[in-house]
Amino acid sequence: MTLLSILATIFGSGMALSNFPQALKIFKRKSARDISLLTYVLLFLGSVTWVLYGIEIKSYPLIIANSFGTIGVVLVVIGWSFYRK
Amino acid sequence: MTLLSILATIFGSGMALSNFPQALKIFKRKSARDISLLTYVLLFLGSVTWVLYGIEIKSYPLIIANSFGTIGVVLVVIGWSFYRK
């Protein structure tokens, strides 16, 4: 593990965790009418692609950060499917 | 170049380019009072770290996508420094 890979894991995970407060808010308010599904579908495709690419090139920072990202995005989409109206 | 590295470049660049409309809006309106500098400082640190990590592990998708990200974020910060009040 190099310093850069540790920093990339920390900053990347931090960015990825930004989806969790959004998911939490949906489940707390039981409402997701203001959520753009397209945004989260695009974020999902992006995160999953980075995870698979990370596995391909054996990059733990990419795998870790984007796994958090994928989970957060999936939680938002689940919330959306429950509370879209 | 594998299929996954091409997809990662496309989706990663797409996500990174999302900062350009924000920068454009600041320069068009000549106003950045609603912009959170902390958000863009964090995004800057994240993008730069991914670029450096990408150089370290010789990953072109990481370098390309996060270079776009860094440029977009820097444009937003420049706009902020001009038009914050």
Your description of this structure?
The structure is a homodimer of 85-residue chains. Chain A is mostly helical and 85 residues long. Chain A has one domain: Monooxygenase, CATH 1.20.1280. Helices cover 82% and strands 0% of the residues of chain A. Chain A contains four helices and no strands. Chain A has helices at residues 3-17, 19-29, 37-56, 60-83. The first copy, chain A, is elongated, with a radius of gyration of 14 Å. The termini of chain A are far apart. The relative contact order of chain A is 0.23.
How much of the residues of chain A is beta strand, in percent?
A: under 5%
Number of strands of chain A: 0
Overall mean pLDDT of chain A stands at: 94
CATH architecture of chain A: Up-down Bundle
From the alpha carbons, calculate the radius of gyration of chain A and give it in angstroms: 14 Å
Low-confidence parts of chain A, pLDDT < 50 over ≥5 residues?
none
Largest interface by Cβ-Cβ < 8 Å? A-B, 22 and 22 residues
Q: Which series of helices and strands of chain A comes N to C?
A: HHHH
Number of domains of chain A: 1
Output the CATH class name of chain A: Mainly Alpha
Distance between the termini of chain A: 46 Å
Largest sheet of chain A: none
| CATH domain fold name of chain A | Monooxygenase
Note the total helix count of chain A: 4
List keywords for this structure.
homodimer, Monooxygenase, mainly alpha, 0% strand, 82% helix, elongated, 85 residues
Give a short overview.
Chain A has 85 residues and is mostly helical. Helices cover 82% and strands 0% of the residues of chain A. Chain A has 4 helices and no strands.
